[in-house]
Design a protein that fits this description.
Strand order of the largest sheet: 1-3-2-4-6-5-10-11-9-7-8
Distance between the termini: 22 Å
Largest sheet: 11 strands, mixed
Number of strands: 11
Structural class: alpha/beta
Strand content: 5-15%
Helix content: 25-40%
Shape: globular
């Protein structure tokens, strides 16, 4: 249990000092999975055999005195919309229930090259469309802090696995908050990188202009270590680049926040934001002030409209991206059809869940003749306006501080029948994706029920170093320490 409570950085040091072995870490993680998975339900597939082989290889290299990557031997979970060669990649959908990719995503290859044992593929909202991890075709993942509540989404399985001690690190993807929102609900750290900072090759596309792969971890130092391993340009992804890339982002963690200016966007603290959440984030601002930072109010007047623009843009791109799933080449195919047209229709009707169908129909509508100019074109114009507002803020501020989510984790089933209410949980996170900016979600307190509250640090393009250093200083100032919660229903 002691190993389960430690961060990746602590485990790395213990490995270097030969106080533990990679096999012991892996054993501890799989023991925790065996104990907690029936309640938490994070995993869709376990890869125990390959994980143990990787751990054994790490131990062999350590015994031989070889210099290893910082995260070698640290178990990691992979969101099930990232392709893994020889292992099913379902996107939590009936449509891909039997899909085994012939190749691995670039980030998965980088994880393997850095000798991290991959524990398995974890649950998500179907095709990453959702905010609660309740839209999975296979199972509902539970929040380890309260099993009656959601872990957030779409990377709910990634967040829950780290929070429950079923993995030390995890890979997630973020289209409108899908790393940051579950990180907030589960009390861990999640980084949505700058668009292009991490390769998307091998990520099953939802909305290609918004999607971004990112790290989820137990501390800002762990997040910096994993981000260092997965970021950088990739010839297989033309949108990726090396701008701002550093070999080891831990080099920036000692940077002081003294003299920095932190912007507090007033639009993020209005109606709909829970009072306890607002109070916790403002208290975090006071911590930064005590560390020598200047805190000032700023304005992003277009941000209240970001949610509408996001669902227009993302649904339109989803409609286009998901057109490939038709039962012809791979994945699910209906058994009931008389001709090609019926095969297409029945396959997509039976293979997609309700939320995915909802977004495909919305996206097809806004792209249709007569409505393209009224909706999608205006959504893209809004994107430019919002980017200009963020640029104006960063002319005077080093980073912005906001809530991550308007409230703490809600009950399973509470919002599932109200799509609009569910969508509103993304109101604080979607502007970042529209603008292509980096943002870090991390714990900043708990509510009256003991549920984690998360704050969001938003930086300028390729400003991950600023966010990680500021987050690390906050952790040091508050004495924050990751703790695996007692897995018990409340």
């Amino acid at each position: 249990m002691e190993l389960i409570q430690k961060t990746a950085a602590q485990l790395h040091q213990l490995l270097r000092d030969r106080e533990i072995t990679a096999a012991e870490i892996t054993d501890a993680v799989f023991a925790q999975i065996a104990a907690c998975e029936p309640q938490v339900q994070s995993y869709l597939a376990l890869t125990e055999e390959s994980a143990r082989k990787t751990a054994a290889l790490v131990d062999e290299k350590l015994a031989a005195g070889e210099e290893l990557p910082p995260l070698a031997g640290i178990p990691i979970a992979v969101k099930d919309n990232l392709c893994t060669e020889g292992v099913t990649t379902t996107c939590a959908s009936k449509m891909l229930y039997n899909f085994v990719p012939p190749y691995s995503a670039t980030v998965v290859k980088k994880v393997e090259e850095n000798l991290l044992p991959i524990t398995g593929k974890v649950n998500l909202d179907e095709f990453a469309m959702g905010s609660s991890c309740e839209n999975s075709h296979f199972q509902k993942t539970h929040n380890p802090h309260d099993l009656s509540r959601v872990p957030g989404g779409s990377s709910g399985g990634s967040a829950a696995s780290v929070a429950a001690g079923e993995a030390v690190l995890a890979l997630g993807s973020d289209t409108g908050g899908s790393i940051r929102q579950p990180a907030s609900f589960c009390g861990i750290v999640g980084l949505k990188p700058t668009y292009g900072a991490v390769s998307r090759y091998g990520l099953v596309a939802f909305a290609s202009s918004l999607d971004q792969v990112g790290p989820m971890a137990r501390s800002c130092e762990d997040t910096a270590m994993l981000f260092s391993a997965i970021s950088g340009a990739d010839e297989m992804d033309a949108t990726s680049c090396d701008r701002g890339h550093r070999a080891d982002y831990r080099d920036y963690l000692a940077r002081d926040v003294k003299g920095m200016t932190i912007g507090i966007p007033k639009e993020y603290f209005g109606e709909g934001i829970d009072e306890e959440v607002s109070a916790a984030v403002m208290q975090a601002a006071e911590v930064f002030r005590s560390l020598g930072a200047q805190v000032k109010e700023v304005s992003l007047p277009s941000s209240p409209h970001a949610l509408s623009a996001y669902y227009i843009i993302s649904s339109a791109e989803a409609s286009s991206n998901l057109a490939r799933f038709d039962g012809v080449k791979y994945g699910y195919r209906s058994e009931h059809y008389q001709n090609l047209q019926e095969m297409y229709v029945n396959t997509r009707t039976e293979g997609f869940g309700a939320e995915v169908k909802r977004r495909i129909m919305l996206g097809t509508y806004v792209l249709s003749s007569g409505y393209f100019d009224a909706y999608y074109k205006k959504g893209k114009a809004f994107q430019s306006a919002l980017c200009a507002e963020f640029d104006a803020c960063f002319a005077d501020c080093d980073f912005l501080l906001t809530p991550t989510v308007p409230q703490t984790a809600f009950k399973l089933g509470e919002n599932i029948d109200d799509p609009v209410k569910m969508y509103k949980s993304d109101i604080c996170t979607v502007p970042v994706n529209i603008a292509g900016l980096p943002a870090l979600a991390m714990p900043c307190g708990r509510d009256r029920q003991g549920l984690p509250i998360g704050m969001q640090l938003i930086g300028p393009h390729f400003g991950e170093d600023v966010l990680l250093s500021a987050g690390h200083r906050y952790e040091q100032a508050t004495g924050y320490q990751f703790t695996v919660p007692a897995i018990a229903s409340k």
